[in-house]
Design a protein that fits this description.
By secondary structure, the chain is α+β, with helices and mostly antiparallel strands. The chain has a single domain (2-141), classed as Hotdog Thioesterase (Thiol Ester Dehydrase, Chain A, Roll), CATH 3.10.129.10. It has helices at 51-67, 132-141, and strands at residues 2-3, 25-28, 31-37, 73-82, 91-102, 105-114, 119-129. The chain has a 7-stranded antiparallel beta sheet with strand order 1-2-3-5-6-7-4, covered by helices on one side. Strand 6 and strand 7 (119-129) form a beta hairpin. The longest helix has 17 residues, at 51-67. The two termini are 16 Å apart.
């Protein structure tokens, strides 16, 4: 597996964001994958991982599936389906994949599961390939020192 490009200040994948999740994302064949902890500091209700953070993780795994193809995506639309509450302290697994492409428009799906395989949430999204000035901004803010070995946060 190879690590997918990251952005140092990103809330989800940034290593330099002091309040971020610091999740590492990897290309695994046709999918993007990641593993992280439902850290109690990101709870909503007591002992329940915040749904907004779940949504951010799902957005990121879908975008990373596209980014793994060296295409820089911008989120256009996203739908999240919450299946069950995520207890804090739980180890989480993410999978994302491209489901279709029409020109610069990509559709993707993502899934968040627990250690027992239980599905906590799923998502679908539409992403637009960045072009012109926006593509330059995205390229300029990425880190190029991606690692090839698996690292957990």
């Amino acid at each position: 597996m190879r690590e997918i490009v990251k952005y140092s200040g990103c809330f989800v994948c940034g290593d330099q964001n002091p309040i971020g999740l610091k999740v590492h994302f990897y290309a695994d064949g046709e999918e993007a994958v990641a593993e992280c902890l439902a850290d109690p500091q990101f709870q909503g209700y007591k002992d329940i991982f915040h749904g907004g953070v779940v949504s951010a993780l799902l957005d990121e795994i879908m975008a990373k599936a596209i980014l793994a193809q060296e295409i820089y995506p911008l989120t256009a639309e996203m739908t999240v389906r919450f299946k069950k509450a995520v207890p804090t302290g739980q180890r989480l697994f993410l999978r994302g994949r491209i489901t279709s492409r029409r020109g610069r428009v990509f559709e993707a799906s993502g899934e968040l599961t627990g250690t027992d395989g239980a599905v906590f949430a799923t998502a679908t999204g539409k992403y637009i390939e960045a072009s012109g000035t926006m593509r330059g901004l995205l390229l300029g803010s990425s880190e190029s020192d991606a690692k090839s070995d698996c690292h957990e946060s």
